[in-house]
Write a structure and sequence with these properties.
The chain is an alpha+beta fold and about 375 residues long. It is about 20% helix and about 35% strand. It has a seven-stranded mixed beta sheet. It has a six-stranded mixed beta sheet with strand order 8-2-1-11-10-9. A three-stranded antiparallel beta sheet has the order 3-7-4. Helix 1 runs parallel beside helix 4.
Length: about 375
């Protein structure tokens, strides 16, 4: 008689410096930085493999700057599509153009690249930096607790339930983060906008061309058309109730109504529906020091948020890679970041809910000198 099947999957380590939960772009980027610094880590994700869909499609200049030290910026730029213009239109009429090529950065453009490509580049860098064995799938984190000297992470995986101890547990597992909600107890204030968004990657003829990202405004809501590598366009439209998987007929109808006949859809490669949330975490880290007293992160002279002293037992949803703040850019304390984020959310609400007036464009009066 044969006994029960035995798995050949190696056991998780009993202890490491950092456990990262979530192997999306955030978790992979952190893993690459830790690997380059020689810090031990374990990166866990509940999916057997990356989703393989385009999802987020833009990598911005500051992101490329932060990925340059780990060697990820150059391969991303090589794979992506560099665009230096953002055009704002109403139908065929151009209202404004925002140029990126004058930005004070080595990357003065928006890099258009599907998310699965970004994740592939980051994973390659993690492996090249010596962290290939530290990326483990599929593992579901079911609990994160505290003990003197660190965090205790409980994981369900191919070998059943395992426990890993670490100095830090980092939540990079999205809006319903296990680390943030269940372990750290960090609130996530805000809500969801009523309108939904239809998203589709399509092959199509687009009159404005592939040299810029276009936002078209109208009484029915905005629509964004952005070129992607491989002769593909990303179409995102705010609609009252989007279908789960918008088809070619739906995308064509939205383009006809809002883009003035400038687009002709040929094929839908991938589509989805999503809602926009206006939320912000109450704080960015939580935990107890060895003496049992809750302590607030303290910025150090000349260092940005996220470079606080390391206290054993801290749970950190996302340790920042802060840089030296520019004089006059506001406080470095996390409370200042909360105020800044809340103000940004208010501005976003104003823009999304501002009433549209078709055919009426009032000039902005010149400011007296």
């Amino acid at each position: 008689m044969s006994g029960p099947a035995r798995t050949t999957v190696p056991a998780l380590p009993d202890r490491t410096d950092v456990v990262i939960v979530g192997a999306g772009p955030t978790g992979l980027a952190l893993a690459a930085h830790l690997a380059s610094a020689g810090v031990g880590f374990l990166l866990l994700d509940r999916r057997p493999e990356s989703a393989g869909t385009s999802r987020a499609g833009v990598v911005h200049a500051r992101t490329l700057e932060t990925l340059e030290p780990v060697g990820a910026a150059a391969p991303l730029v090589e794979r992506g599509l560099r665009l230096t213009r953002f055009g704002i239109r109403r139908g065929r009429h151009r209202l404004a153009t925002v140029a990126f090529d004058g930005l004070p950065t080595p990357y003065p453009y928006a890099l258009l690249l599907p998310q699965h490509e970004t994740e592939a580049v980051l994973l390659d860098r993690v492996r090249a930096l010596g962290g290939s064995g530290a990326v483990r799938r599929p593992y579901t984190v079911t609990g994160v607790g505290q003990e003197p000297g660190g965090a205790v992470v409980t994981v369900d995986g191919p070998r059943g339930t395992e426990t890993v101890r670490a100095a830090y547990a980092v939540g990079a597992d999205g809006m319903r983060s296990t680390v943030r909600e269940a372990a750290a107890g960090i609130g996530y204030r805000g809500g969801r906008y009523a309108q939904s968004f239809a998203l589709a990657d399509v092959r199509m003829e687009w009159l404005p061309g592939r040299e810029e990202v276009s936002m078209l405004l109208g009484p029915d809501g905005p629509i964004v058309v952005a070129p992607l590598p491989g002769d593909v366009f990303r179409v995102v439209a705010a609609v009252r109730e989007a279908p789960g998987e918008p088809d070619a007929a739906f995308v064509q109808r939205v383009l006809d109504e809002r883009a003035g006949g400038q687009g002709r859809v040929g094929e839908v490669l991938w589509s989805s529906r999503f809602h926009v949330h206006n939320r912000i975490a109450d704080r960015y880290r939580a935990g107890w020091d060895p003496a049992g007293k809750r302590r607030r992160p303290r910025p150090q002279p000349g260092r940005g948020p996220g470079h606080e002293h390391r206290h054993p037992g801290r749970l950190r949803p996302r340790p920042g890679a802060g840089r030296r703040p520019h004089p006059g850019r506001g406080p470095r304390h996390p409370a200042g970041r909360l105020r800044t984020g809340a103000a940004a959310g208010c501005r976003a609400r104003h823009l999304l809910h501002r009433p549209a007036h078709p055919g009426r464009h009032r000039p902005v009066p010149a400011r007296p000198r």
